[in-house]
Structure of PspA/IM30 family protein:
Amino acid sequence: MGLIDRVVRVIKANVSDLINKTEDPEKILEQTVLEMQEDLIQLRQAVAAAIATKKRTERDVNGAQSHADSWYDRAQLALEKGNEQLAREALVRRKSYAETVQALQGQVSSQETIITKLKQDLRTLEGKIAEARMRKDMYIARARSAQAAAKMNELMDRYNPSGTLRAFERMEEKILELEARSEVIENMGSRELESKFAALERGSDVDAELARMKQRIVGGTGD
């Protein structure tokens, strides 16, 4: 294995180790959305509480106003009966309730402002949660894809197709070499056999020629 291959393996091993040690993205996203949901519940409870408080204050306003009206009627009755002192006392009571009404109406106005703000925050949070859920699904899909890619790279590193192909290439080279050797041996055997037959043929020619020569010599002697 070359130096570059070793460096690449080390880098991939470090990245894989980092992925394994990093917190699970799905758990982080799920926890984030869950916390936002809890905030939404608390905000809804705050809106409901503010509305309930406003209604109680409005009931107090109506009650104080009812008492103020009642003391006004009594003051009028006392004055009609000629009891100015009693009428004055009734008006003092009426004024006290009227001031209470005014103060409570100020509270109602403040509570309405608070409720309006809480409802706006509620709608904003609901929108953010909807967006968070959408992003969560998208990020989880991306995280799973990244994890799958990391596992695939790990498997590819173990499998190493290039090494396997090189092994097949080496095997093919050895087979071709063996075939070439067999062909050479076969050719050499054929040539050796042909040489032996050629030698035999040459030997036969020599023997025939020798026989003819002997025959001529024998024939000449006879003459």
User: Anything to note?
Assistant: Residues 165-223 form one domain.
